[in-house]
């Protein structure tokens, strides 16, 4: 069985999506994933991809921003995205659901969090809410640390600044990357310097660091987060067997935390993290595959999906 991981950097995806090689409809036994450059989403997508390849499907995975991925789903160049966060990215998704272009298959992680956070020593000093930030602006250097430019979390923080929410009008957002933001957290993870940063769970940051999520009385970050698997409407119609699998692939938060820790913190190879986990967890894999058949219509054996 030939693997086609094809992990592309976001700078290449925009051009790639416009080429003839990606245009048109995929074959019934082909699944084209895309993922934003987040460790949790990357490993989760790789796990799904490897499991489908064990069932006889051909898969590919492209890396891009959520905005590019949604356009690719609508245009038919991408089939599945497993990393759409609600409510923070709902505004990007809902119009496409209402138009019938896309389908929300399942909330693959429930009880997730995606909002502004501070390390433990800042929390213990009394910063428990976004309403507490302005009073300590100097300690934070009037700065929020976000991730990649264009991320919805960055935009929520920037909107707070522009609207002077919580008296934050003189603050700034530093957009970087997941690695850059966590490096800043690591550098400031002591009692002398304070950091306000975009945090989320599941992620290994919640295991390695003492992360606390700030209360948000004005509701800028919306309700409790979930993470959705989203597919093009055409793919849902074309590949009901794969959709049946995706509907059942709901990942416990502690499992994805462990994936991200192994891949991003321990720096184990992506394919090894996913493949070793699949081999070691037949019980959960069997639940995901209940009633699902191989690409050739066969029933997978319990021992070797």
Outline the structure in words.
This protein is α/β, with parallel strands linked by helices and 305 residues long. It has 2 domains: 10-111 and 225-288, D-Maltodextrin-Binding Protein, domain 2 (3-Layer(aba) Sandwich); 122-213, D-Maltodextrin-Binding Protein, domain 2, CATH 3.40.190. The protein is 39% helix and 20% strand. The protein is built from 13 helices and 9 strands. It has helices spanning 10-17, 39-54, 66-75, 90-98, 120-124, 152-162, 178-187, 205-208, 233-238, 240-248, 253-265, 270-280, 282-288, and strands at 30-35, 58-63, 80-86, 102-119, 143-145, 172-174, 196-201, 211-213, 225-232. Strands 1, 2, 3, 4, 5, 6, 7, 8 and 9 form a 9-stranded mixed β-sheet that branches. Helix 2 (39-54) links the parallel strand 1 (30-35) and strand 2 (58-63). The longest helix has 16 residues, at 39-54. The chain is globular, with a radius of gyration of 20 Å. The chain starts with 9 loop residues before the first helix and ends in a 17-residue tail after the last helix. The relative contact order is 0.18.
Write the CATH architecture name of the largest domain: 3-Layer(aba) Sandwich
End-to-end distance, in Å?
13 Å
Tell me about the largest β-sheet.
9 strands, mixed
Q: Report the strand count.
A: 9
Q: Calculate the mean pLDDT score and round it.
A: 88
- CA-atom Rg in angstroms: 20 Å
Shape: globular
Query: What percentage of residues falls in helices of 4 or more residues?
Result: 25-40%
Tally the helices: what do you get? 13
Q: How many domain modules?
A: 2
The helix/strand class is: alpha/beta
Order of helices and strands: HEHEHEHEHEHEHEHEEHHHHH
Q: Please state roughly what percent of the residues sit in beta strands, choosing from under 5%, 5-15%, 15-25%, 25-35%, 35-45% or over 45%.
A: 15-25%
- Which stretches are low in confidence, meaning pLDDT under 50 for 5 or more residues running? 1-24
What's the CATH topology name of the largest domain? Answer: D-Maltodextrin-Binding Protein, domain 2
Write down the CATH class of the largest domain: Alpha Beta
Oligomer: single chain
Instruction: Specify the CATH homologous superfamily of the largest domain.
Output: Periplasmic binding protein-like II
């Amino acid at each position: 069985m030939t693997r086609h991981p094809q992990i592309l950097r976001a700078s290449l995806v925009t051009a790639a999506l416009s080429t003839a090689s990606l245009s048109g409809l995929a074959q019934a036994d082909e699944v084209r994933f895309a993922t934003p450059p987040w460790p949790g989403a990357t490993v989760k997508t790789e796990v799904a991809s490897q499991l489908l390849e064990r069932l006889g499907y051909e898969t590919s995975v492209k890396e891009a921003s959520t905005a590019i991925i949604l356009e690719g789903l609508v245009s038919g160049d991408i089939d599945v995205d497993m990393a759409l966060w609600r409510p923070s990215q709902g505004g990007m998704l809902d119009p496409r659901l209402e138009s019938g272009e896309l389908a929300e298959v399942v909330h693959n992680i429930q009880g997730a969090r995606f909002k502004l956070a501070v390390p433990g020593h800042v929390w213990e000093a009394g910063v428990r809410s976004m309403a507490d930030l302005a009073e300590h602006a100097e300690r934070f250097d009037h700065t929020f640390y976000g991730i990649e430019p264009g991320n919805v979390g960055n935009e929520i923080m920037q909107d707070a600044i522009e609207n002077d929410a919580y008296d934050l009008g003189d603050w700034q957002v530093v957009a970087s990357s997941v690695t850059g933001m966590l490096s800043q957290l690591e550098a400031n993870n002591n009692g002398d310097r304070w950091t306000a940063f975009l945090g989320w769970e599941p992620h290994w940051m919640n295991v390695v660091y003492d992360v606390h999520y700030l209360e948000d009385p004005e509701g800028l970050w919306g309700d409790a987060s979930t993470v959705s698997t989203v597919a093009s409407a055409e793919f849902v119609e074309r590949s009901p067997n794969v959709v049946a699998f995706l509907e059942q692939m709901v990942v416990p938060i502690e499992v994805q935390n462990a994936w991200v820790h192994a891949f991003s913190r321990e720096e184990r190879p992506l394919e090894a993290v996913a493949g070793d986990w699949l081999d070691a967890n037949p019980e959960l894999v069997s639940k995901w595959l209940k009633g699902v058949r191989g690409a050739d219509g066969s029933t997978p054996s319990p021992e070797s999906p």
